[in-house]
Specification:
This protein is 36% helix and 10% strand. The protein is of the alpha+beta class.
């Protein structure tokens, strides 16, 4: 079911039919993007992945790329997915290549993880790739593998691959079939294998391999001819949905255009394909309720960085859709549904996922613990960014430590390696609270994160010591937290008189205009809201100035004493 009806534009053509175009000017791409990202966040699996069964690697890779394309790559849900993908075993060439491409796009060092070596090891005797190790060379596997190696900065066996694409592409404007080499010439070309080769070859062309230019141009012409009157791209492949084939063709033609190899009319075709995909978005924000197709379709949207006012990694426009507040850093509330467990390797080597906060310009230390594998662990930064001033310790005892210099949200991935060289990726998310931020309350317990961090409480838990008494009560009444803003007035007294226990400036205020400030009223036990606390017709401030007690009606007391003496 299409998401919403859209106005259409009909263009008369010289042929006997008319082309019906969904005009992009009538669409709302910002809303479409937000709804799609909201759907992805709400449908992330508990282990951090997306999709089901054998499709999880591809779906997770596409979802990560979509979030990156939208600038929505700063939250813990993103770091969890990176860790899952880093740790997930990928046996097929397709899965492993997509894994490498997605991780490199996110800044993960895939050669360090041994992933590119594993991909090279899957080549057959001809130096190219089939679906699995030792299989006959074909597409899109070889194209994906070459793109993965290129993106990782690894020298790839280009000669064998170029021979395969040259011999497998029929004469004239043509793409490639799923079969490689001379076997492919007799097979019907298809969009998916053609798109994989166009992307890889376009990038090689940009890197100086100009000999592949004609192959890309002929294939791009063939792809353009597969555009339908409604803006979609389709071929004979019955197992490929129209949304998937359209988005795949879009990304391939976009790559060819970036290399200067796309035919005339490509820009128009891309605009029409984008409009078609937007019109096919379902009411729930997804494409066909499928994470892979949703991520793929989102990649056809122009790159952007969506606003995220509270810095919790969930864009402002998405937060109302997933039940979080754009004005509070409460993305952590989604964690129970978004990857509490990373995928361990067969040795059961695992580390503690990191989700915490720190106070800017204050010393910080977070212990890193590991289990399983063979002890003798080492930790290092695998990807993402740590706050400036924070680093992984150089030796045991392992920790993240330092003094964070800048407020903000920092998702990252750490590499944990045991003494046998086995590695896993551990996700992390560190949010740094500014010194002047006394409003952010991450766990919503009534105590701002600034004060919880300053006073040794957990800003991500409403009951730090798990004793059944909320932090807000303990912090307000326990002597260690008696005067939060250190203005001379205890928290309980300030709250009782509607003052702000987080604002020291209210100590000097005089709301009852009795010439005695709030802190003076506390010191002398008088009422800050009553000018004459003892009702002796002399203002509190005036009594203090002449050495009298503002809460004792001295004339009345003297009268009573005199009466008793008489």
């Amino acid at each position: 079911m299409n998401k919403r009806p859209r106005p259409i534009l009909t263009i008369a053509c010289p042929a006997v039919f008319a082309i019906v175009i969904h005009h992009p000017a009538f669409a709302d791409p910002d809303l479409d993007r937000a709804e799609a990202i909201g759907w992805l966040i709400q449908h992330q699996n508990g282990d951090g992945s997306w999709g089901q069964g054998g499709a999880q690697v591809a779906a997770t890779a596409e979802a990560l790329a979509a979030l990156k394309n939208s600038g929505a790559d700063k939250g813990f849900h993103y770091a969890r997915a990176l860790a899952w993908l880093s740790n997930q075993k990928a046996d097929s060439v397709d899965s492993l290549a997509r894994k490498v491409i997605a991780l490199e796009n996110a800044g993960i060092d895939t050669p360090e993880l041994g992933l590119t070596a594993a991909l090279l090891a899957l080549r057959n005797g001809d130096g190219i790739w089939g679906a699995y190790s030792g299989y006959d060379g074909g597409f899109p596997d070889s194209g994906l593998a070459m793109e993965a190696l290129r993106s990782a900065g690894v020298t790839a066996p280009t000669a064998a691959y170029f021979d395969l694409t040259t011999s497998g592409q029929p004469a004239g404007d043509s793409g490639w079939s799923y079969w490689g080499g001379s076997l492919g010439v007799n097979k019907t070309p298809a969009i998916l294998p053609t798109a994989a080769n166009v992307v890889a070859l376009s990038h090689f062309y940009q890197d100086g391999q100009t000999s592949v230019g004609s192959q890309v141009s002929r294939a791009a012409n063939w792809l353009l001819a597969k555009k339908q009157v409604d803006g979609s791209f389709a071929d004979h492949s019955a197992d490929t949905g129209v949304e998937r084939s359209t988005a795949t063709a879009y990304l391939a033609l976009q790559a060819a255009a970036a290399a200067g190899l796309a035919p005339a009319g490509t820009d128009t075709a891309l605009a029409q394909a984008a409009a078609f995909l937007q019109n096919r978005q379902a009411a729930d924000g997804s494409w066909n309720g499928d994470a892979y197709e949703t991520g793929l379709a989102l990649r056809t949207f122009p790159p952007t960085v969506m606003a995220d006012s509270d810095g919790d990694g969930i864009p402002d426009a998405v937060e109302p859709l997933v039940g979080t507040d754009p004005n509070q850093a409460d993305g952590w509330k989604l964690l129970p549904q978004n990857g509490l467990t990373a995928t361990p390797n067969p040795t059961k080597l695992r580390g503690n996922p990191i989700a915490t906060e720190a106070l800017a310009e204050a010393a910080f230390s977070y212990p890193l613990s590991a289990a399983g594998g063979t002890p003798g662990y080492t930790w290092s930064l695998g990807g993402g960014h740590l706050p400036p001033g924070i680093a992984v310790s150089a030796a045991a005892p392992w920790s993240l430590s330092g003094t964070p210099a800048a407020a903000g949200s920092y998702p990252f991935v750490l590499n944990l390696r045991d003494s046998q060289g086995i590695s896993v990726a551990v996700p992390g998310y560190l949010r740094v609270i500014a010194q002047n931020d006394t409003t952010t309350d991450t766990d919503g317990d009534g105590v701002p994160s600034f004060f919880e961090l300053r006073d040794g409480l957990n800003p991500l838990a409403a009951d730090t010591d798990l004793d059944g008494t909320p932090d807000s009560i303990e912090w307000t009444n326990y002597p260690a937290y008696w005067d939060t803003d250190q203005d001379g007035m205890p928290n309980v007294w300030e709250l009782a008189h509607a003052l702000n226990p987080y604002d020291p400036s209210d100590a000097a205020l005089d709301p009852d205009n009795d010439a005695l400030s709030n802190v003076g009223e506390f010191t002398h036990g008088s009422d800050p809201d009553v000018a004459d606390s003892d009702h002796d017709n002399l203002a509190d401030g005036a009594e203090v100035q002449i050495g009298r007690n503002p809460v004792v009606n001295e004339p009345a007391v003297i009268s009573i004493i005199s009466t008793l003496l008489l």
